[in-house]
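Work Package 4 report. The design task specified in the project plan requires that, given a folded chain encoded as structure tokens, an amino acid be chosen for each position. We show below one input record used in the internal validation round.
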């Protein structure tokens, strides 16, 4: 039995709202409902954008459980289960499976800098420990290592390795991975600004930061790409591009949380070592939101 996925369209890499030092369950559940109502096709809690490095294991578990409970099967939930410790990643992945997640998102181990063989063995160990699909999260800017196409091809032969969230910002990689692994390997962009090119190269969707703030526009953008209507996708890209840029002026998710605070979805609170964004960034975020028609 192989666990594969056919995820399509706009998936949101959800922020984790905080209140009085704790995770804000009410705000988080509200975000889930709003995202689904706006057309988001899937939810990805406790990834990079969800500030997973500063959540306790108990908090991490709760956020995954709340997301699955609140989504009620309306859209798939791909639970963040990454760690630079293979044992810890296995524990998080097992919990996600028990909680009812549709798949897990597992980042390439950061800080340790494993070799390609180390990457293979890390993902193989997680593959062997669970029975739900695994999406490889390849994000060299954060993890300092880049999984090669060759390693990804080796991993794709395992029963539970279903696809990739590609945050390399290299659209050529999509075509290379299609050539090596085939069109059924589920390729999702992890980088909003280049998602247009990613889709044109044969991608299937995007795990988006911007869709926290502009879920409907991001969903429409992805729908246009999937229909092959790149003229309309380009119009939406022009509308969204300042937002894609502004949300990364400072480290994600601080700008996204500030943007969400402007539309009353959650507080802008982040956990150290993350800090709230500077005034200059605030101005750029507000301007980008006006440009996208999200605020007046």
């Amino acid at each position: 039995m192989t666990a594969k996925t056919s995820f399509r369209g706009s998936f949101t890499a959800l922020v984790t709202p905080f209140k009085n030092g704790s995770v804000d369950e009410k705000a988080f559940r509200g975000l889930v409902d709003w995202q689904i109502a706006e057309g988001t096709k899937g939810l990805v809690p406790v990834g990079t954008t969800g500030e997973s490095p500063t959540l306790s294991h108990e908090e991490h578990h709760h956020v995954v459980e709340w997301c699955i409970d609140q989504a009620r099967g309306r859209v798939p939930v791909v639970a963040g289960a990454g760690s630079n410790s293979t044992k810890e990643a296995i524990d998080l992945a097992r919990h996600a499976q028990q909680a009812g997640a549709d798949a897990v998102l597992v980042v390439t181990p950061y800080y340790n800098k494993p070799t390609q063989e180390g990457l293979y063995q890390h993902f193989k160990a997680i593959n062997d420990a669970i029975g739900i699909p695994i999406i490889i999260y390849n994000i060299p800017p954060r993890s300092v290592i880049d999984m090669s196409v060759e390693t990804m091809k080796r991993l794709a032969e395992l029963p539970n390795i279903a696809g990739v969230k590609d945050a390399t910002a290299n659209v050529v990689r999509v075509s290379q991975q299609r050539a090596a692994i085939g069109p059924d390997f589920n390729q999702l962009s992890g980088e909003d600004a280049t998602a247009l090119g990613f889709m044109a190269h044969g991608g299937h969707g995007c795990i988006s930061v911007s869709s926290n703030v502009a879920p409907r526009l991001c969903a429409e953008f992805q729908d246009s790409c999937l229909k092959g209507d790149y003229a309309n996708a380009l119009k939406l890209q022009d509308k969204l591009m300042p937002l894609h840029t502004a949300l990364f002026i400072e480290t994600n998710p601080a700008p996204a949380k500030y943007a969400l605070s402007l539309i009353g979805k959650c507080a802008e609170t982040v956990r150290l070592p993350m800090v709230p964004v500077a005034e200059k960034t605030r101005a750029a975020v507000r301007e980008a939101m006006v440009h996208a028609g999200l605020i007046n």
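The chain has a mean pLDDT of 97. Validation will be extended to a larger panel in the next phase.
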